[in-house]
Amino acid sequence: MDLVERIGNALRAAGMEELPASTSEALSAYGMDSLMMVLSVAALEKEFSLRISGRDFSEAAFQSLASLAFWLRKLGAS
After folding, report:
1. Residue 52 · residue 41 · CB < 8 Å
2. Are 73 and 3 spatial neighbours (Cβ–Cβ below 8 Å)?
3. Under 8 Å between Cβ of 39 and 15
4. Other C-beta atoms within 10 Å of 5: how many?
5. Are 31 and 17 in contact (CB under 8 A)?
6. Which of 10, 11, 47, 51 has the fewest CB within 10 Å, making it most exposed?
């Protein structure tokens, strides 16, 4: 399973019902808001066995699936 698929799994676990077809589409169009970001961080931590600190958190990372993948790679996800 590739990184974007695993991100999708985590976002669905966090409560996002629909995901964009393209990795560059805005997640905000699919319900990403501040609450969903918080829920997504917990789900992403679980999916990737990461600990994401407040210092590492980036609101900009939640713009698209591509930006989330880039951010998670920087944090050590594979």
Report:
1. yes
2. yes
3. yes
4. 10
5. yes
6. 51
The pLDDT, as a whole number, for residue 68 is 97
Tokens of 7: 């991100």
Distance (Å, whole) CA 75 – CA 35: 21
What stretch of H or E contains 33? none
List of residues 6+ apart from 32 with CB closer than 8 A: 16, 26, 40, 62
Percent of the chain at pLDDT above 90? 94
- The amino acid sitting at 50 is L
On the question of pLDDT at 1 being above 80, the answer is no
> Cα separation of 71 and 73, whole Å?
5
- Please state the length of the chain: 78
Q: Is residue 40 within 8 Å of 11, Cβ to Cβ? A: yes
Copy the structure tokens of residue 68: 């989330």
